[in-house]
Amino acid sequence: MERRGAWPARSAWIREAVDALPRDLFAPDRLWRWNGKTYAPVDRETDAGQWAAEVYGDPDAAAVTQVTDGRASSSLSCQAVVVDMLESLHLETGQRVLELGTGTGWNAALLARRAGPGQVTSVEVDPELAAGARQSLQSAGAHVAVTVGDGTAGWPPSAPYDRVISTYAVDRIPWAWVAQMRPGGRIVTPWGRLGHVALTVADDGQSATGWVQGLAQFMPTRGTDTGLDDFSQVCGDGPAADEHPWERELAPLRDDWHLRFALRVALPDVRITVAADEDGLNARLHDGTASWAALSALPDGKTLAHQGGPRRLADELEEAWDTWLEGGRPELYDYGLTVEPERQYAWAQDAATGPRWPL
C-alpha cells in the first residue's frame, strides 16, 4: 500500500486505524480459497501459512469467509477498496454512522475508531455472522452496536445518521438510506458490482446525488435474483438467430475499465465475459433470461458474432460502445448517480445537463 501510494494523505486516521486493528483479528479460523474449480477450506490450525496468505497476501484481494451452496457469500473485503471507501466517506469524530453488512466486523471497527464509541450501528442479515462479528469487535475493544436485520430497510431506531456505508453492492439505492440521513449526510456504497459512489443528501432531504469514486467489485445484496447465471443456460442448444462478422477489437472490452463501466451503465442487465483461446479473444454476453451473443475468434484472425433470443445483444453492445466513443470516452469518474423518492438515474459529466440512464 505504501509503495504504490495507496494510503490517503488527507485521511491519515485510516492507516492508523488499520495498524491498530489488523485484519487477522477479524478473520475466522477457516477461510476459503478458489482452486480453479471450487472453494477449498484453508484452516488456520492446519495451514497457518496459507491462511495468513489469504488474509495478507494481496491488498486487492478479498479473503472469503463464508461459502453457501458453492458460492462465496461473505468475505473480509480487500484492504485497498476498504481504505478507498473509508476516505470517500469523509468521516469525522462524533458523527453517527450506519453500516450495512457487518460481515467479520473489521470495517465497523475501523469506523468506530474514527467516529468514537457508541457512534456506529451495523446491520447484518446473517445471525451467525452477526454473532461472530460481535465477539471479534468486543475482543478488539471496538464499541459497535451490531443488529440482525435487512440492510435494505436501514435501521430507523438509531436514525438520523451523518454517514451511511454499505459493504455489499446494490443496483438501486434503497430510499430508506436517504430518509434516515441528516441533510448534508454522505452515503458511500458499491453500485452495480463495478464501482462505488459517494452521494450527498440534499438540504431538503428529498434527493441524494454524487460521483463515482472508484472501482469496487462487491457481493450483491443477499437474496438478489440474478436469473440464469451461466451463458450456456441462456444460450441453450438451439441455433443462433443471427450471424455476422464482428469488426471491432475485443481487447478494450477486457482491459478498459472505463469502457466496461460505461457498458454497465448503458446495459445494466447484460453480463459480459471475455477470455482468450488459441484463436484470440472471445466474448460471451447474456441477459440472465433468454437473450445471448457470442463473439468468437476464428483461426483466420477474424471474429464472428452469433446472437439469439428476443434481444440482439451484440448489436446493443456495439451501439452502447459507439455512444461512449462519441461522448468522448468518459472515464468512470465522470459518472454519478441521483436518487429521488420515485426515481433513480445514472448520469455522465453533469448531473443536471449530462446524458441520463434510468436505474
Automatic annotation (TrEMBL):
A cellular component annotation (GO) from this entry: cytoplasm
Localization (cell): Cytoplasm
Keywords recorded for this protein, A-Z: Cytoplasm, Methyltransferase, S-adenosyl-L-methionine, Transferase
Enzyme class: transferase
EC number: 2.1.1.77
TM annotation in the entry: none
Pfam families xref list: PCMT
Entry's Gene Ontology BP terms: methylation
Similarity field: Belongs to the methyltransferase superfamily. L-isoaspartyl/D-aspartyl protein methyltransferase family.
Protein name: Protein-L-isoaspartate O-methyltransferase
Native source species: Streptomyces lunaelactis
